[in-house]
């Protein structure tokens, strides 16, 4: 748990152990799989390319990938960033291709393979921009956009353009066989028979939607960079903090409910009247959350390697204590 206020660390503490083999205690240098907290880094990578004029938010998938099917003419980078693309869920495609096969028996899929799956589709779930539907596919495709435009692997781009400049020296996009996570926490799930290590699944090898590992110490540096606009100016980051709108009324989800306000890698819904930028991260064995209150200069971050923890709710309860007692 990490609590930052007015650019100062008020509370930073680890509870429990990294894994049940070594029993090494969790501390501020322990590296957790971020899951969907990764999306704010993927979005930043895209924003850096836009800042350099190498990419535009209104570029379409067919502009970037010449072999992308015709439906990609309507899917813009902006749609991928704010979850209004309507791309088919790659997880659903994998399940259909492996009916009845347990998840731990399905081979892991990588970003390039997800892009290939998207190229096999004939359309989107809805006209891009007309609905909101949280899309891991979109953020994996964004990672491939970064590779195509920059000429670097996505992991190398993150390291050279984000992690190194911010001295996030222990943060990596984990690729098995290519790099290793130091001080690594392993995910766990509580069962009737006790705790079971549940660290990897068939979707744990993709990078753009959830493949970064980092620690509280490095996330404090990330938070400081966001506050101080170290990588991108306030003008550059403004598009990331605007929720999409629909010309015919409120933007809706697939189920017909009002969509959450979502920018580029951040949920933008306020908490008790306080401006808030937040995100959660959930994957096999990990539950994480970040809550940033820019006007209150408050940030609460929770990283957990246990599957039953409600990290967003716990993060909110902690934030409320500080918001109500400034």
Attribute tags:
5-stranded antiparallel β-sheet; Beta-lactamase; single chain; alpha+beta; 12 strands; 326 residues; 3-stranded antiparallel β-sheet
What's the short story on this structure?
This protein has 326 residues and is an alpha+beta fold. It contains ten helices and twelve strands. The chain has a single domain, classed as Beta-lactamase, CATH 3.40.710.10.
Please provide a written account of the structure:
It is a single chain. With 326 residues, this protein is α+β, with helices and mostly antiparallel strands. It has one domain: DD-peptidase/beta-lactamase superfamily (Beta-lactamase, 3-Layer(aba) Sandwich). It is built from 10 helices and 12 strands. It has helices at 39-51, 61-64, 77-81, 90-97, 111-119, 136-150, 154-163, 216-228, 234-237, 311-324; strands at residues 2-5, 8-12, 32-33, 131-132, 172-173, 188-191, 194-197, 212-214, 252-253, 277-283, 286-293, 298-304. The chain has a 5-stranded antiparallel β-sheet with strand order 2-1-12-11-10, sandwiched between helices. A 3-stranded antiparallel β-sheet has the order 3-8-5. Helix 1 (39-51) packs parallel to helix 6. The chain is globular. The two termini are 19 Å apart.
* Quaternary status: single chain
The coarse silhouette is globular
Structural class: alpha+beta
Give the low-pLDDT segments.
none
Question: CATH fold name, please?
Answer: Beta-lactamase
Report the biggest beta sheet as strand number plus sense, adding barrel if it closes: 5 strands, antiparallel
Number of helices: 10
The percentage of residues in β strands lies in 15-25%
The chain-level mean pLDDT equals 96
Strand order of the largest sheet: 2-1-12-11-10
Distance between the termini: 19 Å
How many distinct beta strands?
A: 12
Top CATH class: Alpha Beta
The whole-angstrom Rg is 19 Å
CATH architecture: 3-Layer(aba) Sandwich
Looking at CATH, the homologous superfamily is: DD-peptidase/beta-lactamase superfamily
